[in-house]
Structures are given as structure tokens and as C-alpha cells.
Design goal:
By secondary structure, the chain is an alpha+beta fold. It has one domain.
């Protein structure tokens, strides 16, 4: 990624966090520490700032993303469906992986407004 693109991505991420921070009293009843805020912000970013529905099934089955894709050779960790305005994150993966996937899908919503559907793989099936 070139330097200009990196700056653009960082600016978009910073803008989202600032929007959420400035509206934090609307979303949380108590005052959050910075660490609590950062942990809570991805879900609130998806639902409150971006206006998407967040779904958290235990597992994303191949036919639950796009039936026309048939049997997939990898597990799906998350996906964005812009048409249905939803982000889906599989809960079967470890917390660090779920956090990464959530941030990754937020990135697709913000940085790629022309992409209607994006599915992220976790790893190859064995």
C-alpha cells in the first residue's frame, strides 16, 4: 500500500473513532475508560455510526452467505452485505480473530463504498 493510501485509511479510521467518541454519551450509560471505549467501539461503529445491522452467529455456513457459491473450500469469518445493510461475524473463532474480522469488515464498508458484498475467510479447511 502506498503512503497516500495509508494516510487515507488512517484518516478514515480516525474519523470513525472521533464520531463515536463525540457521541459516546448517546450509546453508553456510564463513563467508559479509553480501554473500555476501544473494546466497545467496533460494534457501536457498525450499528450507530455506519447504520448496519450486526449479526453474530456461532458459524457462517457456506450457503448462508451466497447460495450460488456452492461449497466453499474455506471457513468464513465474516462478511458485509451492503444491500441488506448487515455485517456478520462468526463467533466460533478466538476473540482476537473476531476483533480483527470486525475491524476488517468495517474497513470494507468505509473504504470500498462500491463493493456490495465482501466475504472474509478465516483459514483453509483441513
Amino acid at each position: 500500500m502506498n503512503t497516500t493510501r495509508q494516510r487515507s485509511v488512517r484518516a478514515a479510521a480516525r474519523d470513525l473513532l472521533l464520531q463515536l467518541w463525540n457521541r459516546r454519551e448517546q450509546f453508553w450509560c456510564k463513563t467508559l475508560s479509553l480501554l473500555e471505549f476501544l473494546r466497545a467501539s467496533p460494534e457501536a461503529t457498525i450499528t450507530e455510526i455506519l447504520g448496519f445491522r450486526l449479526e453474530k452467529p456461532e458459524e457462517i455456513l457456506p450457503n448462508s452467505t451466497r447460495p450460488e457459491e456452492g461449497k466453499l473450500s474455506f471457513e468464513t469469518a465474516g462478511f458485509v452485505d451492503r444491500k441488506a445493510r448487515r455485517v456478520v461475524i462468526a463467533q466460533k473463532f478466538d476473540l482476537p480473530w473476531r476483533r480483527f474480522t470486525t475491524a476488517h469488515e468495517i474497513g470494507h464498508v468505509v473504504l470500498h463504498p462500491d463493493v456490495v458484498y465482501h466475504r472474509g475467510s478465516a483459514h483453509a479447511r483441513r
